[in-house]
Design goal:
Number of strands of chain A: 28
Largest sheet of chain A: 7 strands, mixed
Order of helices and strands of chain B: EHEEHEHEEEEHEEEH
CATH topology of chain B: Rossmann fold
Largest interface: A-B, 34 and 33 residues
Structural class of chain A: alpha+beta
Radius of gyration of chain A: 26 Å
Number of helices of chain B: 5
CATH architecture of chain B: 3-Layer(aba) Sandwich
Radius of gyration of chain B: 16 Å
Distance between the termini of chain B: 15 Å
Distance between the termini of chain A: 42 Å
Strand content of chain B: 25-35%
Number of helices of chain A: 26
Strand order of the largest sheet of chain A: 8-10-7-11-9-12-13
CATH superfamily of chain B: Class I glutamine amidotransferase (GATase) domain
Strand order of the largest sheet of chain B: 2-1-3-4-11-10-9-6-7
Oligomer: heterodimer
Helix content of chain B: 10-25%
Strand content of chain A: 15-25%
Structural class of chain B: alpha/beta
Chain lengths: ~750, ~230
């Protein structure tokens, strides 16, 4: 970007380069009553991008349930906040950083973590846990190994340096993400009710203060970049990827929390996508006010930056805040203590306009709320023809393998199913000394010090099901996340969603988006779990087409008494093993069908929301009475994999295995019963003495159950079909990824 | 006892140390900002883990120049108890209060996991509540915990019985597999010649309660509490 950009004439070509359509440009002219100058065009370009403006998804997102007794802050702010009792609240949100990570995995992933952390502490919450959901192409591909290594390293370095434990996550390897990896980062923070602060500018004449890192030329147009498809030219847009400085962010976090908890601020917002532009106009718009800033006062990393560049820079680790009257000096003093830049760059006004000056000369003057009111589209949708072929798939064309023990060994070593120890060993998952259930179980659990409260959390996505049946797949992703929370013994209270899709301007992609959001909404309503915020990442395409439609759900669960928590692994020889739920025999959409037979097709499992809810309620009741020794849900790999995983204690560096002998319930094809992914099933173990009480509770909730076997021995035996030494299964499970990455 | 926990920009186990000492061990704790030089008359100084100054030049390399470190050195010279954990150990080495250096883990990657360490010396103020060769389960979380010292230095450590804890397996055996980061002779923690300064990579601040999976860190805190040594 040359420094003579101020003189660039706004031509049709320039408008197109800014990703704006002719009618969008006309709308800008109508709003302003004149042609915009290049700086103003830049403002609209980033704020009306899909990333900031949600112009293709907003209408659908509005249909999602966002309200509930415990919701203190729903969508529209930097993060959602929910009441957890005793004066405490939890802030949480998930966000994508897919495009930057595909281009520069280390920095892309690291800045993704940095961005979501700022969203949390800008609400007044101290981040206490991070999670992430990652998707790559097949791990056998050397390019994927490089991406996987870089992304994990970037997440590790950022979270570790910040001192926030990364406690849970998921990693999926699938052809669909070969050229377009998905990196979704979630953060969770704790705060007291009276510490909540919002991103709004109010109080005419209040000082607008910039704090944190200096502004450089990095990341200009990142938001616009994230709203287009990745192409061969994308690697040339590397300047659109930002550079991470977790140490700076650590200082920024401590200083920000000191400011907020010192009650010095009216409002505060981080500078993420679209940088200073977004924070300025959003704060003014939320406050129903105007804002006036002078870019010459912004601390700058380089000389000769134009207003255009300063406004659109996505340099990391920066915040914008509005101080309370008389508190401006105290704000500056606290920032000086932390050796951070702080500059008063403007004031709040009553004009409703966002006015940008450079050394007193106006360089942009637009209505603030026009930037946050992006055009709204209702794109065309059409059902993809391929969905029909999935429905017509004949499972009988797939022979049942002769050696099912071998199939189990292959599945347990599949990188998508295998232990992610190679990943989470690189994350500090214990710092802050709250991690009671660490990575490796269905959900992570942290305590809230000074109380009996605990938080369970998990993050789950399901692209493969949604590709086959977007509505059913979306219901299942919510159900699976809530089931993971239920298996930990907690009550799901709220969720955040990240919707990763292809180009919404393609009718087939928009069909998927429409059906997925319908499924998410129906499941959320059935379970009465509000969605308190999230993020949409569209235009995830690679040269062979769109990625699988991939909704990712971050689910938050609450314990009134964290001593009732449960892990997924068997505890004692002689304990009874039960299956909760009903068996199926279909192999459609299963990981087994992909790994063993190389097919991604068929009907994905269906889910009955009422049956699922009863299962969750029963698990919660059993946990509250401490009736269960372990609980683990059946997901990828079905019944056989779930029982196998219950045999391993999955924490870092202390693997312990317990064998089990169980029957193979159900009827029909053996591979479907062993590895099919029928929903609403959980494997639990319990002390034999508790059996009568447990069965009574299950009957009360109407949950089908069957005693299937006993914990003990050195092998896993399933009916007559499977018998494998547990030590062998454990070795395959824990070392599969390590061996592939060696 | 009165503990002072130093806080550098980038310290991130300062809260954990404060919590374990105040709420678990029920002691007086004060936090000392790195720009301060007054340690506030402690019985023991704790240099906590984290990424002081982002560890950008080299772990602990910049923190040693903070004003508070001069006070910590003076306090140690007078015989005051100083314990450095993880990044704190790195800082004490950089500051010359402990010999040797901590370099990149042998597998290059950051490692967060449970480890076992064996008490090699229980005649220090930091291990006197432990039995000889007691095995403690205490987790690590670091990228640069690979302890190194030259041959002469190693001889000095041995001659003066300064190797306090070593990585071992659950049965107390010093095996290559139980050495997570490639440390020379499985060294996990050492003290100075006067035995009043102790540094270790494992985190007793994360392992003093059963709810966290191990209470073995408590033995180290208990040792400090029962020691009679103090700054003269």
């Amino acid at each position: 970007m040359s420094s003579s950009i101020m003189n660039v004439e706004v031509t049709d070509k320039v408008v197109k380069e800014h990703g704006l359509k002719p009618d969008e440009y006309q709308r800008i002219c109508d709003i302003l009553g004149r042609k915009p100058n290049i700086t103003e065009l830049g403002l609209y370009s980033v704020m009306w991008s899909e990333h900031c403006g949600y112009k293709h998804s907003r209408a659908l997102l509005k249909t999602l349930p966002t309200k509930g007794d415990k919701v203190l802050q729903g969508p529209g702010e930097n993060a959602g906040i929910m009441d957890i009792g005793e004066g405490w609240a939890v802030a949480f949100k998930v966000e994508s950083h897919n495009h930057p990570s595909a281009i520069e995995p280390y920095q892309g992933a690291a800045t993704g973590v940095g961005g979501i952390l700022r969203d949390i502490f800008t609400m007044g919450a101290r981040p206490v846990a991070n999670l992430n959901s990652l998707r790559f192409g097949p791990l056998t591909d050397p390019k994927v190994k490089r991406l996987f290594t870089g992304v994990v390293h970037g997440i590790a370095d950022y979270g570790n340096c910040m001192g926030i434990p990364t406690v849970a996550g998921e990693v999926v390897f699938d052809d669909s993400y070969a050229e377009n990896c998905l990196v979704n980062a979630m953060s969770v923070g704790l705060l007291k009710h009276d510490q909540i602060i919002r991103g709004k500018a109010t109080g005419i004449g209040n000082a607008v203060i910039y704090i944190g890192a200096t502004t450089g030329r990095d990341g200009i147009h990142g938001a616009t970049f994230a709203s287009t498809e990745i192409t061969g030219e994308s690697t040339e847009k590397r300047s659109a990827v930002q550079v991470a400085d977790p140490f700076m962010e650590k200082l920024l976090m401590e200083a920000t929390l000191e400011l907020i908890h010192g009650n010095l601020l009216v409002g505060i917002q981080d500078m993420g996508a679209a940088g200073l532009t977004c924070s300025t106009c959003e704060m003014a718009s939320r406050g129903g006010a105007g804002i006036e800033i002078d870019v010459a006062k912004v601390p700058q990393r380089e000389k000769g930056m134009t207003p255009y560049e300063i406004l659109l820079s996505e340099s990391q680790e920066r915040m914008l805040l509005v101080a309370k009257p008389g508190c401006e000096q105290k704000v500056h003093d606290i920032l000086a203590k932390w050796d951070l830049h702080a500059a008063t760059i403007g004031i709040v006004t009553d004009t409703g306009r966002m006015i940008v000056k450079e050394n007193g000369k106006v360089v942009a003057d637009v209505p603030a709320d026009s930037l946050t009111d992006a055009p709204l589209y209702h794109p065309a949708k059409s059902e993809p023809a391929i969905l029909k072929t999935y429905k017509e798939f004949d499972e009988n064309s797939i022979p049942v393998p002769g050696n099912l023990s071998e199939v189990l060994e292959k599945l347990i070593a599949d990188p998508t199913i295998a232990s992610k120890r190679w990943v989470y060993r690189q994350y500090d998952h214990m710092v802050r000394s709250n991690s009671l259930i660490r990575p490796g179980s269905d959900a992570a659990v942290i305590r809230v010090k000074g109380t009996q409260l605990g938080l369970a959390m998990t993050i789950d996505g399901l692209g493969s099901y949604c590709a086959l049946d977007p509505y059913e797949g979306a219901k299942i992703v919510v159900a699976e996340a809530a089931r993971n929370i239920a298996c930990s013994g907690a009550q799901s209270i709220g969720m955040t969603d990240c919707l990763n899709f292809g180009n919404p301007e393609k009718p087939e992609v928009f069909y998927y988006l429409d059906r997925v959001i319908a499924g998410l909404g129906d499941a959320a309503r059935a379970f009465n779990i509000p969605i308190t915020g999230g993020n949409v990442s569209l235009y995830n395409e690679n040269p062979t087409g769109a990625i699988d439609p991939t909704p990712v759900i971050g689910m938050m669960g609450l314990f009134q008494n964290v001593d009732t928590r449960i892990t997924q692994w068997f505890k004692n020889e002689g304990d009874s093993i039960y299956l909760l739920g009903s068996m199926g025999q279909s192999i459609g959409g299963s990981r087994y069908l992909t790994v063993t037979h190389g097919k991604k097709t068929g009907l994905c499992p269906t889910l009955n929301l009422e049956v699922e809810l009863k299962l969750h309620q029963a698990l919660k009741a059993l946990a509250d009475q401490k009736m269960l020794q372990s609980a683990h849900d059946c997901s990828d790999g079905g019944f056989a994999v779930a029982v196998s995983e219950s045999c391993f204690t999955g924490t870092t560096h202390e693997q312990k295995s317990l064998g089990a002998t169980v029957s193979l319930p159900g009827e029909g094809r053996l591979d479907g019963r062993l590895f099919g992914e029928a929903q609403s099933r959980v494997i639990v173990s319990l002390k034999p003495a508790d059996a009568a009480k447990v069965e009574e509770i299950l009957k009360k909730f109407g949950v089908p159950f069957e005693k299937i076997g006993t914990v003990g021995g050195d092998s896993l035996t399933i009916g007559k079909e499977v018998k494998v030494a547990v030590s062998r299964l454990a070795d395959l499970f824990f070392t599969s990824i390590e061996k592939m990455m060696a | 006892m009165r503990f002072s926990v130093t806080v550098f920009p980038g310290s991130n186990c300062d809260h954990d140390c404060e919590y374990v000492l105040r709420d678990v061990e029920k002691q007086d704790v004060q936090m000392i900002w790195h720009k301060d030089t007054d340690l506030k008359n402690p019985d023991c100084v704790v240099v906590p883990g984290g990424f002081s100054y982002g560890d950008y030049l080299r772990t602990g390399a910049i923190a040693r120049f903070s004003p508070v470190m001069k006070s910590v050195a003076d306090f140690a010279a007078k015989g005051g108890l100083v314990i450095g954990i993880c990044n704190g150990f790195q800082i004490l080495c950089e500051a010359g209060l402990l010999p040797g250096a901590l370099i990149r883990n042998k597998n290059i990657k950051f490692l967060c996991q449970s480890t076992y360490i064996r008490v090699e010396q229980n005649n220090t103020p930091f291990t006197n509540a432990c039995k000889p060769n007691q095995v403690l389960k205490i987790p690590i979380a670091h990228g640069e915990g690979n302890y190194f010292i030259d041959a002469a230095g190693l001889k000095g450590l041995k001659d003066n019985n300064q190797i306090v804890v070593r990585y071992c397996d659950a049965n107390g055996q010093l095996t290559p597999e139980s050495n997570p980061n490639g440390s020379l002779e499985n060294i996990a923690g050492i003290c100075n010649v006067n035995r009043n300064v102790f540094g270790l990579m494992p985190h007793p601040d994360r392992s003093a309660e059963d709810i966290l999976g191990s209470h073995d860190g408590h033995y180290l805190w208990q040792s400090i509490l029962s020691s009679k040594v103090g700054a003269k």
